[in-house]
Structure formats: C-alpha cells, structure tokens
Design brief:
With about 160 residues, the protein is an alpha/beta fold. It is about 45% helix and about 15% strand.
C-alpha cells in the first residue's frame, strides 16, 4: 500500500462566475478572495477558490474536466462549503448537493435584501447540509460575520 500524505480538508468557496458580466465578475472574485482570506486568517488553511482554477476567461477546461475536479474537491477535500449567493448560479446548487451527500456542512452568505424579498431558492435553503445563513448588507459585514462564525468551528 502506498504512503499518502495526509491532506487537511479545507473550505470550498462556491458562487457564480460564468453567469456574470465582466465588471460584476471582477467585483465578485474580489469578494471570493476576501472570503478565502478570512478563512485562512481564522484557520491557517487555504480555501479552494474555483475561479483561480476555472475562470472561463482564463481556462479552457472541458465541462467534464471541471465536473471531475470540482466534484473531487467538494466530496473529498472539503470540510466546509461557503456559498456566496451573490447572483443565480447553475453550478451552486449542484455543489451544495454534493456537500450534502458527503456530510460537508454549508454556510450561505446572502444579502439581507435578497432574503427579505425571497430571492434565494427555497430548495437550496431547505438542503439538509445548510448549517448557517449569514445575512448582510455590505461585503464588509459579510466577511466580519463569517470570521466571527468560523471562530466557533474546529478545523483540526
């Protein structure tokens, strides 16, 4: 039997990329990076940020390759799925269900106004993997609340 290096599981940041216009995509990717930065600050671990590997502007992976890599990442190397519900995403629901099937808890970051106006899918919010929904008005508030919530978790 081969010796495999033990890999600590990490967070997977989930949110739309392809569905966004160029300006919004840049803003959203900065938000994803802020989420990854706060995760690293609290846990010491690097989060998986999909756009660093699969941004459609920079990478030409086939859909099957993207599914293979992201499915492996969520199902085998993830201890927390962080959903940034900044816009509708065809991939996000799939990633949440992959997390659910593999007992990976999910936290959703969603603007308070979207929740108030029922703009987040009830099917998504009803998924059994959802541990927490963090409501926010600004990205700063979202990052602050996420940091506070992460402080209560054990990533050892």
């Amino acid at each position: 039997m081969a010796n495999y290096k033990k890999v600590k599981k990490t967070a997977y940041i989930c949110g739309p990329i392809r569905e966004l216009d160029t300006l919004t995509r840049k803003q959203v990717m900065r938000f994803y990076q802020r989420i990854a930065d706060v995760f690293k600050e609290v846990t010491g671990l690097d989060a998986f940020v999909p756009h660093k590997r699969f941004d459609p502007e920079n990478y030409v992976d086939t859909p099957k390759e993207i599914d293979r890599v992201e499915r492996y990442q969520v199902c085998n190397r993830t201890s927390l799925l962080i959903v940034a519900a900044v816009a509708p995403s065809w991939g996000g629901g799939i990633e949440v269900e992959m997390a659910n099937q593999n007992n990976v808890p999910v936290v959703i970051l969603c603007e308070r106004e979207k929740l108030k106006n029922r703009k987040l899918s009830r099917l998504l919010m009803g998924n059994h993997a959802i541990e927490k929904i963090i409501e926010y008005d600004t990205e700063d508030e979202a990052v602050h609340k996420l940091k506070e919530w992460l402080g209560f978790l054990d990533f050892t």
